Amino acid sequence: ASIRWVTALLLEETSYANVSLDLIARRAGVSRPTIYQYYASKRECVLDVLSEFLTIVFEFVERDSKARRAKTDDLLALVTDTNREYIAFYRENAALMERVRELRQEIPELISLQQDANRKWAERLAAHISRNGPLSHKQAIFTAYALESMIDDFLRELFVLRNPHLAALNLTDEALAQNLSSVWVRAAYGVSGLG
């Protein structure tokens, strides 16, 4: 557990290239041979940590959205709550989200793990859109993927790349959640969002 924890912390602090098994061992307070009991390489260790992280991302969104669905049938409130939680999660984990993006070429297994998580989420969202909006299932799937990409890229610009033009908007997380949700509801359900 300490090896995994330290690996995650190092990936938050620095690039993959700057992480080494020696550094992981030193920070975890274990010997390098101890790491080899669990992982054959740095790549394998990082893949394990980021795979678990992607699972946590999907489970986080799924768990919170199930709880919200049980509480309300107000579509805008449901979407806003989901986005509010995801914005907070992304802000807190922006470095790891970026490491997943950066390492997709170096560790191709991350591509399929991320695509699988995105597919599960898109299918669940598309089913909801099809039941509650004017779009066909095919249109709903397309919209779900587009919305997922939009939110992730927007949050990356804001929290990772620190786009000064977005920062100049001085949006609180609540305003950000409301505005993104308004766009989301309009695109997915064909209804007006926030007045």
Could you explain how this protein is built, in words?
- The protein is an all-alpha fold and 195 residues long.
- It is 77% helix and 0% strand.
- It has 10 helices and no strands.
- The chain has helices spanning 2-13, 21-28, 32-36, 42-71, 75-92, 94-102, 109-132, 137-159, 164-167, 173-189.
Compact overview of the structure:
This protein has 195 residues and is mainly alpha-helical.
Helical content band: over 70%
Tally of contiguous helical segments: 10
Mean pLDDT: 89
| Biggest sheet architecture | none
- Sum up the overall morphology in one term: elongated
Q: From the alpha-carbon coordinates, what is the Rg to the nearest angstrom?
A: 19 Å
Strand content: under 5%
Structural class of the secondary structure composition? mainly alpha
* Secondary-structure element order, N to C: HHHHHHHHHH
Oligomer: single chain
- How many strand elements? 0
- Separation, N- and C-terminal Cα atoms: 48 Å
Show unreliable segments: none
